[in-house]
Queue: 3 jobs
Job 1
Amino acid sequence: MADILNAKWNSNGNSRMDFVIAAVKLQAAEAAIEEALSVVEANVTHGRNYQLDDDPKAARDQDLARVDNLRTAHKLIDDLRMVLVHTIAFHEK
């Protein structure tokens, strides 16, 4: 069986639809992060923006590490969304 959440709808008054809405919101957050990453990578961390720095490579590498942290957050959101989707699919009706 797939990894699922321990939370079950109706045990505290929430409905299946509340779980579905949460999954949709997580998917929207993923899309927004992906769009933001695209803009940051194309326009902010482009090599030309480090030309005047004393150590352009080190400065860019530091910024790219910050971008990688956002990629990690994106992956964690995706993991939670997938667990939530599995919970919705496998929850006993």
Note: The mean pLDDT is 92.
Job 2
Amino acid sequence: MGEILSMKWQRNIGLLLAGAGVVALALWFSRQNQEPAAAPPGKPGTNILAARPAVKAPSGTNVARKTPATPTTSQVARTNVRTAALTNAPAVKPSGTNFVSSLQTRLQQLKQHRAFYPAAVAIPFLLGLILLWLSARPRKDRTATGGATTAAATPAAIPSTSARTRKKARAANVQQCNVLHAAGDTRHLWQFGVRGGRVSLHRDQRTAPGESLPLHLVQKDWRSLWQKKLNVAWLPPEQVFLRVVQLPPADFEETLQMVELQLEKLSPMPVAQVAWTMHVLSSPAAAEQTVVLIVVARSVVEEILGRLENEGYMADRLELPLLDQLLAINPDDNGAWVFPNTGDGAGSAMAAWFYDGVLRHLELITPAPENRAESLKEQLFQTAWAGELEGWATSPPKWHLVADAATASLWEGPLREGLQQEVQVVSPPAPAEMAASSAARATQAHPRSTLVPPEYATRYQQQVVDRLWMRALGAVVMLYIIGVGIYLVAVQVALFRTKAVEAEVAALSATYTNAIQLRAQYQVLKDRQELKFAALDCWKAVAEHLPETLQLENFNFTEGRRLVLQGTAPVGQVQQIYQFDGALRKVQVNGQNLFDPTKGESPSYQTAPGGTALNWNFTLELRRSEAQ
């Protein structure tokens, strides 16, 4: 069993990995055929620097003497224009494409490795081929193959007791049981729910000749892994040999061993050619137990299982409905109970002999067609005489006919005529009641008490596992295909949105470039106008606070914010220079300081040639916002 499961796992995993390799190969070719996304359309001919107007800032102002002007405002404008020209279009990021873009980037990076796709294809494909080869290797069978040879080597359905274990096997937790009665071309199916050891009828369905069984009722699915389903089929009574054995009280394992020791004597055929099981009946006598031995030719079992298998019904157990009839009657009298076989009309019947509430004997009676009454009398009286010799027939038997009205009309007359005694007609249990009894008995039966050969049970289990694996694999493939479809649709939607944004950016690029140019020109003009007033404010402040003893020789306004003052003063007027610098740093215009008191350069001076004057200079920086 372990080798078979290992082979199945190897085959399934091999198929899965080989399929993964094929899918990776298909993705490789599909990726190779795809073109990368086009770059955002732009206009390389449009250059803001080239289209920038030549704007000149006003030259510096000098009061004492004329010095070359320094056009620093054009540098500011030039810097602003260059900064804006670095981005030719607005930084628009399409929403909803971040994840897709990052995923595409990573895939592109992986695709750049030359060994990526060959490895993605070769590794799972080679592993799958190796596992398939391992699962397909011929294994040495421990048993011979073939019909008669297999039966002779390992007798089918004979419970093995070689281990002589004393552990009792636990019956599986069955939650659903199907009982099938196949009579001719018609099929009668009962479905029972099992809970707490009790069965309840859920469905009663008949199929017409030529109509198949409902597979959703009889096949096992994923739910059967944790809610076990049991399929039971009825055996035709005319093909079953029954024998009653009285044995000492013991547990099931010991009883099974005792029956196996006597099997060659009890079986009507060679042990290697039969399938057998047993059923223990409750007995009022504490000193013994009644065991019903059920023996069926192996060829009959294989024929029935093959026919049911072709119809899609994998039988887990084969049961005899006659046992359910025996369990249903109340043997309050000593005598014989005749159970006609409804399958062959008035052809055969099963006779059960009860004495003192204990089943003593079971036999199949077949009356002759030409003289049924005399034939019935002869067969039944022979059993009664044998019972007297064996000691269990202690009184004249009473006769009972267990049959419905239609069947009783065929058997009651010949029985009365042949036996010359009263025959009591007993109504049999309904088919649904017998099916419920079979279901309850099958769900509580010992796992080793079965007529189904073990190789059939193993093969059925393998088919269930294979079907579930194939369905799971198909579901995974379908989910994968659906996921790939959703991914491709999402990629196409993202590409469509990206192209729409790129088209919008391309349409707005010219307008945006023109807007940047106009903004730069406006900023230059605004700076020129503001700097013009700033120079006038500086000139006014200097004119108002310049001491009379100082002479201003150079007034230079550079970089739009620096004011450099140079001049001369008599020797001994150093204090006037520092006062002039402090007064300028405190000048306010429109409620705020005109110059930054913490910036600029402090006054410096040196003696002029001749020693009669001082040359001084200092620097101030504007604090106004337009100078920032």
Note: The chain is about 45% helix and 20% strand.
Job 3
Amino acid sequence: MNKKTKHDYLKKFVFILIGPDFVILNSTSTSKFLCTKQNDDNQGFEITTNPTISSNNIIIYEDLLNKTALEITIQSLNYIGAFILICSSIGGQSAGIRSDVFIGCK
């Protein structure tokens, strides 16, 4: 009988980092983030915001640098508010990582 250990589950788990983890922007600025995986899990990246922000207010560009790194660019279009940017692995066993984004007046 193959009994799974805690180590077996951790081998499949992918650790993800995002930087910076906190930004303050003005209502018409752009900021870049880097989301990285500890190792390649053969899955893509998933980028979400919480709460969901309309693309009329925020544009999110994704540039896959390699299998373990994704550059994210956020452009604010006269948006004022706060949200959480979440980076996670698509369909994999991972915990998403977040960055807090605050956008104020010019």
Note: The chain has one domain: 19-104.
